[in-house]
Amino acid sequence: MQRSSTVEKIPSNVSAQRDALESARKTLGTIILGKDDQIALALSCLLARGHLLIEDLPGLGKTMLAQSLARTLGLSFRRIQFTSDLLPADIIGVSVFRQDRGEFEFQPGPVFSQLILADEVNRATPKAQSALLEAMEEFQVSVDGETRPLPTPFFVVATQNPGDQIGTFPLPESQLDRFLMRVAIGYPNEASERELIAGADRRSMIDEIESIAGPEMLLELQSSARKQAVSEPLIDYVQALVRFTRASADIETGLSPRGAQALVAAARARSFIENHSGVFPDDIQAVFPSVAGHRLKPAGSTRFRSPAELCQHVLDSVAIP
Asked: Which domains does the chain have, with CATH numbers?
């Protein structure tokens, strides 16, 4: 599939949106050093109206990325530290009886914010983890027989330590599927790590971040990202990838239709961020490991030892149109 060389006149509002995106990327890049690809994936996830799971070892900047996203995008932010004794009411809220009025009054929990950081989400029990399921899928919560809408926009950014660490509870497949993308931060390169060691404290720099966008601008960015054109050959490519995940002997459970929709939504957002005129195969390939890695269940006999290797095997096995 060839890209068009035609230079189209970009409407002023879209131009302003892309300027805001570029400013956001640069600002985030001053906090999370040397991780431009991870920053682009995180922004793609939010533009696709998805929730983000950041999985990696402690101390690599997972929480800082979530905090920086909230500050840069001008969203209301609450952090929930997930622990083994966390209760659903600690997340959703609770009704308190007011004696002076003789009635119950609902006290909203931290989930009633535009960006929620579920920090170390897999350190809480499955009961506490399940408190996020309705919020992530329906953008609402049900308490005491009443359904309450969540703010708009609404995102969950969860951090997760590797499952082999002490005190973790694996996320069930149903909850993993609620996350549009999963990314890993990874160790910084030598130059970035040197700057981290010798430079200013990144946590104090977060407090100095000025909002680049805001909720209204973010909603406009999401709308523009959804309008990125997807050609018929590209749909064929996505379907070929999905079919391969279901037929491969290395994969026990392939991508569902929702997984295929997530792949296209993330690719649209990535295409918009990279200023492409439409969605191209390299957009699909760039987001595929983050969209599919936590959805694919490897077969017990597979030779691929990590989700990244398995996803690369899928990409290498399916021809690009």
From this structure: 9-225 (3.40.50.300), 228-321 (1.10.8.80)
